[in-house]
């Protein structure tokens, strides 16, 4: 970013798909349901019904919605519902995911450049802490924040603004870093800046503001931020 641009003082990181590689979970869900598109269908249901819960005020945590979405997926594919124990095994994989290869180099560069960094995820607090510990990322972040305490999912404006308030950072001086167009749209419409990482299969939302920064990897974003 140029010297006269509004360089953010706080970076908020999404976790699933942005920092963590969901490939292991994707493979397991696809194999379980014998479909190459099962994981995408399941993850879309997970996001869709988290928004339904937010709009209707009928909160369940991400794990509960993930479990329900596995039932919905089975029904959509004309398959029997999986036993609770099998669903639990599948969902447990979300806490055992590696970081994308570019993540530690990118976080290291940003940490060395002096940026404040926190996470903000739709995953429950306990799950997020297991995820980041397993991936070896915990030490990069000042705080690990989940929407669970708000009982309101991203991209609701409250999720971003309450994080800024908690960290005593102005929204305009805060940047969300994410690999989801719905997430960057939510942050920008709440008054934050946003950096979009173009992970394979991810797109920005054409009817939302263009992300402040775009890059194919986290180091690419870091280079633009550090200048």
Q: How would you describe the shape?
A: globular
Radius of gyration: 17 Å
Q: Supply the CATH superfamily name of the largest domain.
A: HAD superfamily/HAD-like
Based on the structure given, which CATH architecture of the largest domain is correct? 3-Layer(aba) Sandwich
The CATH class label of the largest domain is Alpha Beta
Range of strand content:
5-15%
**What oligomeric state is this?**
single chain
Please give the domain count.
2
**Biggest sheet, in brief?**
6 strands, parallel
User: What are the low-pLDDT stretches, counting only 5+ consecutive residues below 50?
Assistant: none
**Termini Cα gap:** 6 Å
Count of helices? 9
Order of helices and strands: EHHHHHEHEHEHEEH
According to DSSP, the number of beta strands is: 6
The overall average pLDDT, rounded, is 96
In CATH, the topology of the largest domain is named Rossmann fold
Find the structural class using helix and strand composition. alpha/beta
Layout of secondary structure:
Elements: E1 10-13, H1 23-33, H2 38-56, H3 62-76, H4 84-92, H5 103-112, E2 116-121, H6 125-135, E3 143-146, H7 157-166, E4 174-178, H8 181-189, E5 193-197, E6 213-215, H9 218-226
Helix pairs in contact: 1-2, 2-3, 3-4, 5-9
Organism: Hymenobacter terrestris
Protein name: Haloacid dehalogenase type II
Family: Belongs to the HAD-like hydrolase superfamily. S-2-haloalkanoic acid dehalogenase family.
What would your notes on this structure say?
With 227 residues, the protein is α/β, with parallel strands linked by helices. The protein has two domains: 10-21 and 97-226, HAD superfamily/HAD-like (Rossmann fold, 3-Layer(aba) Sandwich), CATH 3.40.50.1000; 23-95, DNA polymerase, domain 1. It has nine helices and six strands, in the order E-H-H-H-H-H-E-H-E-H-E-H-E-E-H. It has helices at residues 23-33, 38-56, 62-76, 84-92, 103-112, 125-135, 157-166, 181-189, 218-226; strands spanning 10-13, 116-121, 143-146, 174-178, 193-197, 213-215. Helix 8 links the parallel strand 4 and strand 5 (193-197). Helix 1 crosses helix 2 (38-56), helix 2 crosses helix 3 and helix 3 packs across helix 4 (84-92). The longest helix has 19 residues, at 38-56. It is globular and about 55 Å long. The mean pLDDT is 96.
């Amino acid at each position: 970013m140029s010297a006269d641009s509004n360089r953010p003082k706080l970076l908020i990181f999404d976790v699933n798909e942005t920092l963590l590689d969901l490939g292991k979970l994707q493979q397991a869900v696809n194999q379980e349901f014998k479909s190459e598109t099962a994981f995408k269908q399941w993850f879309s249901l997970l996001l869709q019904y988290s928004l339904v819960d937010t709009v209707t005020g009928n909160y369940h945590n991400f794990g509960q919605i993930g479990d329900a979405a596995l039932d919905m997926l089975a029904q959509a594919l004309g398959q029997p519902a999986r036993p609770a124990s099998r669903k639990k095994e599948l969902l447990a994989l979300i806490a055992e995911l590696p970081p994308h290869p570019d993540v530690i180099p990118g976080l290291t560069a940003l940490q060395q450049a002096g940026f404040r960094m926190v996470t903000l995820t739709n995953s429950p607090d306990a799950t997020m802490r297991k995820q980041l510990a397993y991936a070896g990322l915990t030490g990069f972040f000042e705080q690990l924040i989940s929407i669970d305490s708000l009982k309101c999912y991203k991209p609701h404006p409250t999720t971003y603004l309450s994080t800024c308030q908690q960290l005593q950072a102005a929204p305009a001086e805060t940047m969300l870093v994410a690999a989801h167009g719905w997430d960057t749209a939510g942050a920008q419409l709440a008054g934050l800046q946003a950096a979009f990482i173009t992970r394979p299969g991810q797109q920005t939302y054409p009817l939302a503001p263009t992300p402040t920064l775009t890059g194919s990897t986290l180091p690419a974003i870091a280079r633009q931020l550090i200048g």
